[in-house]
Amino acid sequence: MTQVTLQFENNTIKNRLLKIIELMDGISVVETKSTKKKNTGLDKALEDVEAGRVTEYASVDDYFQKMGI
Fold it and tell me: Which residue pairs from 44-47 have beta carbons closer than 8 angstroms and sit at least 24 positions apart in sequence?
C-alpha cells in the first residue's frame, strides 16, 4: 500500500479534491491530526506582549490603587 500526504492551504480546493478522490475505486481518504504545535501558557503570554495586551504598573501598591483595593 502506498500512502500519499497532501498539505492544503486553501480549504475549498481541499474539499473539491477530496470529493474527487473518494469517487475512485481502491482509494480511501484518511484525515490525520494537524501537526500544528499547541501553544503553551508561555507562548500565549508572549503573543499577548507582542499584541500589546499587557498593562504595566510601577508597583504593587499602584496596581491595588488602580483596582480600588
Answer: none
